[in-house]
Amino acid sequence: MPLGVRSFRGGVAHYKTATGSYAVDDGCWLVLNDGQSYELSIDSPAEVESTVVFFPTGWASVVARIFRERPELLLDEPLGTGESVTFLEATVPHDQSVTSQLLALDRAGRHQKIQEAYLEEALRDLLAALLMSQRDHRERANRLPSAKASTRQELYRRLCRGRDYLGASALSAPTLADAASAANLSSYHFQRSFKLAFGQTPHEYATARRLSHARRLLTDIGTPPAQVAVAIGYSSYSAFHLAYSRHFGEAPGRVT
User: How does pLDDT run across 98-157, given as a tens digit for each residue?
Assistant: First the structure.
């Protein structure tokens, strides 16, 4: 498949590639690189809406060149193609840049035939936003303790793999050792570095994903709270009630 970005609403799309597992739901989007093969399954008892955008081969390199090259070179060689681009494959929380452009493309495609000129401009702007999101990854990687940038980037890439493992398997209560193994790190190295990179512990992240799934079952589908507790793996309703209330500031029975 070509380079593309994916988002889903009303359910969870589980992507599995040769390098990782990803759960894409209402709260995030995922980019997969050109040529990446995958398996896809949808987890939802109701209809799921998706927005999936693919880009022509080579466009990412051309757009990235605007950010990488000196202005003089862009004038002297306006038709240069630039170096190839490889995106970090990881789920990313919705934001005002990538998400807003995805939704605009989705609305345009649902309500009218998209004009070619508009589509070309929108795809290039979306690529630029995706490239800017890579800068955010680099900033988080720079929080990690290493003198070498390459070491920080590799550690961050492994942390993202472990985080996506936690998200993809959140309902089965993955252990810290499981996630660290997916990241190819020791448990304590993973735990400590995860908190530095993402501002929360692996357990806090996995719990938040479980509870977000619970909220979707309550609000979108109307599943009774007691059934939701069982569905997301809590041993008792009281434990689910307490965790949900702490996380969202309201009891699960009050969701409408």
Answer: 999 999 998 888 777 788 888 999 999 999 999 999 888 999 999 898 879 999 999 999
What is the pTM (predicted TM-score) of this model? 0.84
Q: Where in the chain is the domain with CATH 1.10.10.60?
A: 149-256
Closest C-alpha to 216, from 43, 99, 16, 98: 43
CATH 2.60.120 domain position(s) in the chain: 4-141
Q: Is domain 4-141 given the CATH code 2.60.120 in the classification? A: yes
pLDDT tens digits, residue range 189-212?
Answer: 999 999 999 999 999 999 998 888
| CATH code of domain 149-256 | 1.10.10.60
